[in-house]
Write a sequence for this structure.
C-alpha cells in the first residue's frame, strides 16, 4: 500500500492546476495532455490559459475547418479558470488527486491515452490496492443480465476483488449494487464532474459506492454529462481493470467500446454468452465470436486473476439449515423459484415455506427479491 | 293562506330536510319559487298546476309564493313536487291544515296527477326519520323501499286525487307490494373451487377478505388474476347490521333502488379502466354525484389492469384510500362522501407480462411501465402478490363456502377485539394503536424486526406487515401472532410489479 493513498493531504499547486484545467468546457483529456506537455507542467499551462497564450498550441487539435472560433473560447477559459475555488473544493470534499507519473497513480503501465489526472472521492481508497475487475454492460439489460451482474459482483467482492464499473443504469448499477451488498469494495468511474450525479436515479447508489469505495473520474468539477465523454471515460474503466467482464451488451453499445479498449490495453476480456433471441446478448455473443472468453462459471474470473476460488476471504460461516430449510434449498435446486413453486415441491404450507425462506435469507443461503427466491 | 309541508332533497348521498312553505295571497296570479331551486324544481309550477287541475281540484287564481327552506341548500330534482302541491291544497283550504300533522311528503308529479317515484327515497326517508318526522307520504313505487327505515310510518301515494281523500281520512291508504326476498347467499354463479392452484394468491385473497386489506395481484395475462379477484365477493363477510342499511341507502341515493330489501352483501364494484376521475371518486359537473369509491363503501373496488387507468384517476384514489372518505369542495358547498372500501387491483408486471425471471423486457421498458403506478399508490397495498400461471397438474382449491366460513370467524375475532373502537378490521388499526392491540412476542417480534431490517422497510411498510400478520393469525384462529405469520405477511407484500 503506497502512502499517497492514505487520507488526502492538501493538494499540490500542480494538482490544483490540472483539476482546474480539466473543469473547462471543450478542454477534453486529449487537449489537456497536449497543453500540459507543451508547457511542461500544469501550473505553467494554467498560467498560459490565463494569459490566453494557449491558442497556438491547441489550434491543430481543433482541425483546419472545425469552425470553432478559438479566440472567444480562450477568452472564456481565461475568465472561467479559478484555481483558488478548485483548491477550496478539493479540500472541502476531501478529494484525492493523482497526476500521471506521481506515486499512487492507479494505472501502472504507460498506456498511450491514460488520463493526465485522476480525481477520486470516497471512503475506501484501498479499493485501488486490490485486484480490480470491471463489470460492464448495456443500460437496457434483461432481468437475467441484471441478476448475473449482481451475482458476479457479489462473488468477486466476496473474494476481495474490487469491482469497477461506470455507475450507469442497467448492468453497471447491478454490478455496483452486488459489490455493495456483499460488503466488498467498488469503484465507479464517471464521465462527469464528481459533484454531478448522473443518472439522477442512481443518487442512492452513488452514496453507497462512496461509502464502499471510490467515485473516480478525470474531469474537473461542474462538468455535466455530454454524449462524447462516456466512450472516452470507458478507456479508464478498461485501464483500471485487470480483467473486463461484459455481462450483456447490444451490438453497438458502450460496453463493446470498453471491451475494445481492454483488448488494446492487453486486458483479458470475458463475455457472458446469452441466447441469440436476446438483443441484449448480441454484443457479448459477438465478443465471444471475436475471441473473448465465454464466462459461464464466476470462479473462472478468480482463476484468471491467479486467485484460488473457493478459498473465500472471510467467507461467513453459514449456519446449517434445519430440516425444512434443507427441504426448501433442495426444492430450489440452484434456480430462482417462486414461493408457491417451493410450497408445491416440498408439500409444505405457505407459512412454513415463508418462515424457512426468512430464516435462510437471514443466514445467507437465499435472497428474496422480485417475488422470487434466489439461491446464493 | 300560509301552509308548510316537510320534504327532503339529496345532498351528496345524504338526505337534507326541506320545509316547503306556500303562501297564497291576493294579487295578480303568479307563481314564484324562492330558496335556491334548480331548473327541475323551478319547472314544478307546470307539473303541479297540471296535476292539480287533472285531479279535479281548483288552481288558485292568486299570487303564489313557494319558499324552500333552508335557503342555503341547493334543491335538486322533482321530488319536491308533491310537497308543493299539498302545500297549495292546504293554503287554499282544499285540505284541512291538520291533515299533514307530523308528516312529510316526497314525490314527483305527472301532468295527470299521478305520483312518480323519486331516486334516493331510502336516504331521504332515513334523514326524515332521524329528524323526528313520524309519517311520510311517498310514491307507491317507493313505498316498499321507504318501509325499510324503522321508526317512521309510510303512506303510499299513487295519485294526487286519491291522496287528498286519504289525507282527509275519507279513504284508506293503499297498500303496496313488499320487496322480493333477497337472493340467497349461495346463489353465486362463480366459486373459488373453479380456480386451480395459485395457493399463494388464494391465501392473499382470503387475508384481504378477512382483514379488509388492499390487494394487488401482478402477473402475466392468463395467470388467473382476474378470475381470482372476481371471486372475492363470494368470500367477503356479510355486512354488519348498521353497515347493511348504509350500503342500501348510498346505492338508493346514487339511483340504484334496492331490488331485494336491505343489502345482504357487500358491494363489489368493477369500473372499466376508461373511468374518469369524477366517475371514480365522485363529483362531476352540476350536482356532485358519488363515484365508484362511494358505491364500493363497506365493500370492494376492483380495478382490473390498474396501469391502464389514467394517472389522474389513480392519484385521485390516494386520498380516499387514506381517509376512507371523499371530500368534494365547491364554491357553494363542501360534501363528504363515505368511501370505506377495500381496493383490489390487477396489473401486468411489465409490457411483455411474463415477469421475472422469464421477462424479456429491457430495464428501461420496465421502468417506464412501472412509472404508471406511483410509489405512494403501491405503498398503500397491504398485500402485493405475483400470480404465476398454475402448473398444469394443479388441482382445484377449496370452495368459497369453506373459505367464507374461516373469513367469518376471523371477522368475528376482530369485531370482538376492536369493540368500542372506531374500526372493526385489522387493516384499519391506526399505527399508534398497533403496539397495544397487535402485540408481537418472542419469535414473532424477532421475525418482525429482521424483516424490517432486511427489506429496509419504512415504518409504514412494517406496520402494514404487522396488520396482515394479525389477519393471518385470526384466520388460523390463534390468539397470538407467530413468527410464521410475520414471515408470510412479509412475503405477501412483494416488490411487484
Amino acid at each position: 500500500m503506497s502512502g499517497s493513498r492514505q487520507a488526502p493531504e492538501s493538494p499540490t499547486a500542480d494538482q490544483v492546476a490540472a483539476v482546474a484545467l480539466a473543469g473547462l468546457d471543450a478542454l477534453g483529456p486529449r487537449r489537456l495532455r497536449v497543453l500540459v506537455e507543451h508547457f511542461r507542467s500544469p501550473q505553467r499551462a494554467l498560467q498560459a490559459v490565463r494569459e490566453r497564450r494557449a491558442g497556438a498550441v491547441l489550434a491543430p487539435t481543433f482541425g483546419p475547418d472545425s469552425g470553432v472560433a478559438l479566440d472567444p473560447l480562450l477568452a472564456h477559459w481565461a475568465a472561467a479558470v479559478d484555481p483558488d475555488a478548485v483548491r477550496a473544493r478539493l479540500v472541502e470534499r476531501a478529494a484525492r488527486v493523482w497526476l500521471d507519473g506521481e506515486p499512487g497513480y492507479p494505472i501502472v503501465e504507460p498506456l498511450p491515452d491514460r488520463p493526465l489526472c485522476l480525481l477520486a472521492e470516497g471512503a475506501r481508497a484501498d479499493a485501488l490496492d486490490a485486484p480490480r475487475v470491471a463489470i460492464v454492460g448495456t443500460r437496457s439489460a434483461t432481468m437475467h443480465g441484471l441478476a448475473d451482474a449482481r451475482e458476479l459482483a457479489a462473488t468477486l467482492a466476496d473474494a476481495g476483488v474490487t469491482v469497477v464499473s461506470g455507475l450507469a443504469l442497467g448492468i453497471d448499477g447491478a454490478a455496483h449494487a452486488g459489490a455493495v451488498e456483499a460488503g466488498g469494495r467498488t469503484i465507479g468511474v464517471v464521465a462527469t464532474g464528481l459533484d454531478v450525479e448522473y443518472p439522477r436515479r442512481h443518487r442512492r447508489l452513488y452514496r453507497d459506492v462512496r461509502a464502499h469505495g471510490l467515485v473516480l473520474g478525470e474531469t474537473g468539477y461542474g462538468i455535466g454529462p455530454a454524449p462524447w465523454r462516456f466512450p472516452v471515460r470507458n478507456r479508464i474503466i478498461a485501464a483500471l481493470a485487470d480483467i473486463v467482464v461484459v455481462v450483456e451488451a447490444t451490438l453497438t453499445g458502450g460496453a463493446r467500446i470498453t471491451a475494445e479498449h481492454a483488448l488494446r490495453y492487453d486486458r483479458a476480456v470475458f463475455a457472458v454468452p446469452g441466447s441469440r433471441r436476446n438483443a441484449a446478448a448480441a454484443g457479448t455473443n459477438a465478443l465471444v465470436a471475436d475471441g473473448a472468453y465465454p464466462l459461464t462459471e464466476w470462479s473462472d474470473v478468480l482463476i484468471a486473476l491467479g486467485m484460488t476460488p473457493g478459498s473465500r476471504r472471510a467467507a461467513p460461516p453459514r449456519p446449517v439449515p434445519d430440516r425444512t430449510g434443507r427441504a426448501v434449498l433442495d426444492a430450489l435446486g440452484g434456480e430462482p423459484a417462486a414461493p408457491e413453486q417451493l410450497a408445491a415441491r416440498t408439500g409444505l404450507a405457505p407459512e412454513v415455506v415463508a418462515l424457512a425462506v426468512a430464516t435462510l435469507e437471514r443466514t445467507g443461503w437465499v435472497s428474496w427479491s422480485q417475488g422470487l427466491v434466489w439461491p446464493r | 293562506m300560509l301552509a308548510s309541508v316537510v320534504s327532503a332533497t339529496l345532498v351528496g348521498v345524504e338526505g337534507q330536510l326541506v320545509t316547503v312553505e306556500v303562501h297564497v295571497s291576493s294579487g295578480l296570479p303568479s307563481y314564484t319559487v324562492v330558496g335556491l331551486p334548480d331548473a327541475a324544481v323551478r319547472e314544478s309550477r307546470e307539473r303541479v298546476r297540471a296535476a292539480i287541475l287533472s285531479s279535479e281540484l281548483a288552481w288558485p287564481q292568486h299570487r303564489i309564493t313557494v319558499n324552500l327552506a333552508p335557503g342555503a341548500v341547493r334543491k335538486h330534482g322533482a321530488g319536491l313536487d308533491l310537497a308543493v302541491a299539498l302545500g297549495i291544497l292546504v293554503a287554499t283550504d282544499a285540505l284541512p291544515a291538520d291533515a299533514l300533522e307530523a308528516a312529510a311528503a316526497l314525490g314527483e308529479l305527472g301532468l295527470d296527477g299521478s305520483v312518480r317515484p323519486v331516486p334516493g327515497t331510502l336516504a331521504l326517508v332515513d334523514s326524515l326519520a332521524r329528524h323526528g318526522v313520524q309519517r311520510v307520504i311517498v310514491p307507491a313505487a317507493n313505498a316498499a323501499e321507504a318501509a325499510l327505515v324503522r321508526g317512521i310510518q309510510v303512506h303510499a301515494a299513487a295519485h294526487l286525487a286519491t291522496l287528498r281523500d286519504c289525507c282527509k281520512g275519507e279513504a284508506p291508504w293503499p297498500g303496496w307490494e313488499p320487496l322480493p326476498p333477497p337472493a340467497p347467499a349461495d346463489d353465486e354463479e362463480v366459486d373459488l373451487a373453479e380456480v386451480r392452484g395459485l395457493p399463494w394468491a388464494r391465501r392473499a385473497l382470503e387475508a384481504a377478505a378477512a382483514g379488509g386489506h388492499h390487494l394487488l395481484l401482478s402477473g402475466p395475462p392468463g395467470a388467473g388474476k382476474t378470475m381470482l379477484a372476481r371471486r372475492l365477493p363470494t368470500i367477503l363477510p356479510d355486512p354488519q347490521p348498521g353497515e347493511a342499511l348504509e350500503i342500501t341507502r348510498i346505492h338508493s341515493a346514487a339511483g340504484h333502488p334496492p331490488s331485494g330489501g336491505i343489502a345482504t352483501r357487500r358491494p363489489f364494484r368493477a369500473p372499466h379502466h376508461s373511468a374518469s376521475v369524477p366517475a371514480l371518486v365522485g363529483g362531476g359537473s352540476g350536482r356532485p354525484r358519488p363515484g365508484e369509491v362511494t358505491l364500493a363503501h363497506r365493500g370492494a373496488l376492483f380495478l382490473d389492469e390498474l396501469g391502464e387507468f389514467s394517472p389522474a384517476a389513480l392519484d385521485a384514489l390516494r386520498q380516499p384510500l387514506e381517509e376512507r372518505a371523499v371530500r368534494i369542495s365547491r364554491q357553494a358547498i363542501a360534501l363528504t362522501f363515505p368511501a370505506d372500501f377495500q381496493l383490489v387491483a390487477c396489473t401486468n408486471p411489465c409490457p411483455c407480462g411474463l415477469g421475472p425471471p422469464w421477462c424479456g423486457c429491457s430495464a428501461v421498458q420496465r421502468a417506464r411501465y412501472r412509472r404508471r403506478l406511483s410509489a405512494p399508490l403501491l405503498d398503500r397495498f397491504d398485500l402485493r402478490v405475483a400470480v404465476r400461471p398454475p402448473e398444469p397438474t394443479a388441482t382445484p382449491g377449496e370452495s368459497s363456502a369453506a373459505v367464507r366460513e374461516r373469513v367469518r370467524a376471523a371477522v368475528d375475532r376482530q369485531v370482538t377485539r376492536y369493540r368500542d373502537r372506531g374500526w372493526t378490521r385489522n387493516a384499519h388499526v391506526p399505527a399508534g394503536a398497533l403496539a397495544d392491540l397487535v402485540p408481537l412476542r418472542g419469535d414473532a417480534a424477532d421475525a418482525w424486526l429482521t424483516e424490517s431490517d432486511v427489506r429496509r422497510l419504512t415504518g409504514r411498510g412494517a406496520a402494514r406487515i404487522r396488520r396482515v400478520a394479525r389477519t393471518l393469525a385470526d384466520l388460523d384462529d390463534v390468539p397470538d401472532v407467530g413468527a410464521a405469520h410475520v414471515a408470510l405477511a412479509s412475503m405477501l407484500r412483494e416488490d411487484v410489479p
